[in-house]
Structures are given as C-alpha cells and as structure tokens.
Design a protein that fits this description.
Layout (H helix, E strand, L loop, with lengths): L2 E6 L3 H11 L5 E7 L5 H8 L3 E5 L7 H11 L4 E6 L4 H9 L4 E4 L4 H12 L4 E2 L1 H19 E2 L2 E2 L13 H11 L4 H8 L3 H15 L4 H10 L7
Parallel strand pairs: 1-2, 1-3, 3-4, 4-5, 5-6
Antiparallel strand pairs: 7-8
Length: 227
C-alpha cells in the first residue's frame, strides 16, 4: 500500500532533498509540495496525503498553527513537524496541536524514512535527541516528586528480564539514552538491521506502538536509568 506524502517547507533545496530521500522508498509517493503553512489546507483538500511533513518556521503561517488548523478539519491526516529546535517546549507544543512526529533537521535519511513509516501506521515518532531531552525533563519532575524532607529517595532500577532478553534490555536503555539505531549498533557492535529487529521485538513484547511509548513505560516502571 502506497503512503502519500506532502512536504511543506519554505526552503526549496531542503524540500527537494527530503523528497529525493522519500522517493527511494517504493511504498512512498510525494504527491504535493508547498512553501508555507498557509497552503496546507488547500494541498490536503486537493491531494489527500496520508502524511504531511511540515516545517515549524515559515514566513506567513508557521507549522504549529497550520497543524492545528489541519487537524481540526482533517483529523485523520498525520503530521510530522520538522524543526531546528530540540527544546521540550517546542516539542510539547507541537504534540499538543496534534502532530504525530517531531524531527530535527539534523536527522539522517534512515530516521526520516522510519518516522514516516511509523506515523503512517498510526504511531508517533520523536527524534532520538528530542526523546533524550524529554526524558531529562521527566527526570527533573520525578526528582521533585521523590524528594522527601532534605533527601532524595533513590530509584531502584529493575531490568524487565521477565519480559525482555538481556540484549533487549540493553537496547531499551539506549533508547532511553536517546541513541539512534545507528548509535545503538555502533555501541553494541551489531548491524542497524539487527537493532531494528531488537526494537521491533521490544515494542511487541511491551505492547506499545513506538519507541517513545516504550521509553515512557520503561521509565514509569523503573526499567531504565534516566541519566
């Protein structure tokens, strides 16, 4: 089944680069392009893409505002925000408006393809660096809750060996650390394909849709260190 994609970004060279990467995938089809958020509704109405890749900073209507308006009228359309900002406030704002994904423009081709595939299938995808920043923010909040009197209660880490293999526990920890598939592969001296297989097994065993949900569940259960 073909995933139809629209790209909205005011930088033509960047837009063309994204299009070229996506069209290497046989199941992806870029059906429309735009250079400002003000074109979003017209593009979606005319071309009905499954996924809209949206720049966050555009001259007339920014990606956040365009996403909000789009989701209100076409709630089934999936949006991935592109940004140079990794601050959790930007990410939270984007997700609150209805975006299903958030990618930094420093992403590699594999991350872009994986994000589109995950989002098109109904999941959510955050750039690994963004995930790491959100985890750090969660740690600060958790520390505030755990603080009692003048001391901080220690959080005991219990690896989910009842659910995952030891290698999968290692991969889960690295997901929480914000590492990409490539970074995990380099750290564990395994191929990216093997990493993807481990991640797929983790998601299935944890009964979650994507790596972000896996990290959140792992943190709540004390299965990973937040560092």
């Amino acid at each position: 089944m073909t995933t139809k994609i629209a790209i909205i970004d005011d930088h033509q060279l960047f837009r063309e680069g994204v299009k070229r990467i996506l069209e290497f995938e046989e199941t992806f089809e870029v059906v429309a392009e735009g250079d400002d958020g003000s074109e979003t509704l017209k593009i979606v109405e005319e071309h009905r893409p499954d996924v809209v890749i949206m720049d966050i900073n555009m001259p007339q209507v920014n990606g956040i505002q365009a996403t909000r308006e789009l989701i209100e009228q076409y709630p089934d359309t999936k949006v991935i925000i592109l940004s140079i900002h990794d601050d959790e406030n930007y990410v939270t704002h984007a997700l609150q408006t209805g975006a299903s994904g958030y990618l930094l423009k420093e992403m590699d081709a594999d991350a872009l393809i994986e994000a589109v595939r995950v989002v098109a299938e109904g999941g959510s995808y955050l750039h690994p660096k963004v995930t790491h920043n959100l985890v750090n923010e969660y740690r600060k909040l958790a520390a505030g809750v755990a603080r009692s009197g003048s001391y901080l209660q220690a959080v005991e880490i219990r690896r989910p060996l009842h659910l995952l293999t030891r290698r999968e526990c290692e991969v889960l920890q690295m997901l929480a650390d914000g590492k990409s598939n490539r970074g995990i592969g380099e750290a564990l001296f395994i191929s990216e394909k093997t990493v993807k297989n481990h991640v797929s097994n983790i998601l299935q065993k944890m009964n979650v849709n994507d790596r972000t949900q896996a990290v959140v569940v792992a943190i709540k259960n004390g299965w990973v260190e937040v560092r």
